[in-house]
Amino acid sequence: MNAVTPIPAGQPKPLPQPLPHSGSRLTLRSSGLLGWQGFGAELVNVSAGLHRIPAFKYHRVGVHVGAPVRARCLCNERRHSRIQAHGDADVIPAGLDGQWSDEAACTIFSVWISEAFAQRTVEQLSLKSGDAQLRPQFQMRDPRFQHLAWALRAELEADETSDPLYAESLCTAMVVRLIGGAPTLENKRRTLAPKTAARVIEFIEAHLDQRLTLSELAALVELSVPHFKVLFRETLGMPVHQYVVQRRVERARTLLLQGKLNASQIALDTGFAHQSHMAHWMGRLLGVTPRELIRSGANAGNIVEFDSNQVRGIAIQR
C-alpha cells in the first residue's frame, strides 16, 4: 500500500490484473481548516484495486491503519509483495510517481510535508548533506515514528484541536526521525539563557492573539527549531505548545473576570479559534467553563491559575 516509484519508460504495466485506476479514495478527515502550514494530513479510505499516483511537489508518508492487507507494488524496478500491518509506513519523497495494488479495502493516515518545511528542519540539524535526505522507505516499522504519527492522527480527529504549534512540533519530530537526525545537545547549553528565555516569553505574551509558530520563535533567538524545542522544555518544564495554551487560558480567565468583553471576542483576542475552543481548554486546564468562571465572581480566586510571573521566575533562576 502506498509504495511509490518512478515507472521507467517502455516498461510493461507491473500489475496487469486490475484495470488502471481501478481503486478509489474517500477522504474521512482533512487538516485543511486546522491552520497547519507547510504540512498537512488526511485520513483516507482506500478501496481494493490498482492505484496510480502522479509525482507531487511535497513529500508523502502513508501509515497503514487497521487490519492487515496484502499489497503489491513496483519499487526501484523490483516487484514487492507484502502484508501491510497496522502502523507500517511508506515514505515517498517529492518528485516520485508510481503505483500500488491492495487486495482489500483499507485505511491510510496520509501526511504531506512541503519541501520548504523539510529543508528548513534538515538545515537545522548540523548533519552532513549526504545524510540529511528523505529517502524512499517501504513498510517502515519504527515504534517511535508510529508514536508521533498516532499523536498527529489524534490531533486530526479531535473535536477540539490543540494549538497548531503542537501539530507543527509533531511534524518536525517526524522529519527528524525520518532522516535519522535527532539533534544532540552535547557541547551545547542545556537551557535557554535567562535573557533569551525572557525574550521568548515576552514575545509570546505580546502575540497571544496571533498564530505562533515554532519557526518564528526559534528565529527570534537564532536557534534551530529542534534545539529550541528541547531548550525551551528544559527551561520552562513544558513543551512550547503547552506553555502557549496555558498562557492563552490564563489571559482569557483574566478578561472574563473583568467582564468588559463577551466570551466570543475574548476567545479571538486570546488566540483561540472560537468560543467553544476556548471553553474546551478552560475546562481541561482550570476545571470550569467560561460561564461557571463568570458566575463564580468573587470566588474566582480559588480557581487554579497559571502565574506568568512565576514562570518568568523559573526561567531566570534556571
Automatic annotation (TrEMBL):
InterPro entries the record matches: AraC_XylS_family_regulators, Homeodomain-like_sf, HTH_AraC
Compositionally biased residues, Pro residues: 9-19
Region (Disordered): 1-22
Location of the HTH araC/xylS-type domain: 198-296
Originating species: Paraburkholderia dipogonis
Pfam families with a match to the protein in the record: HTH_18
Protein name listed in UniProt: Helix-turn-helix domain-containing protein
Gene Ontology MF terms: DNA-binding transcription factor activity; sequence-specific DNA binding
PANTHER family named in the record: ARAC SUBFAMILY, HTH-TYPE TRANSCRIPTIONAL ACTIVATOR RHAS-RELATED
Keyword Amino-acid biosynthesis included in the entry's annotation: no
This protein's UniProt keywords: DNA-binding, Transcription, Transcription regulation
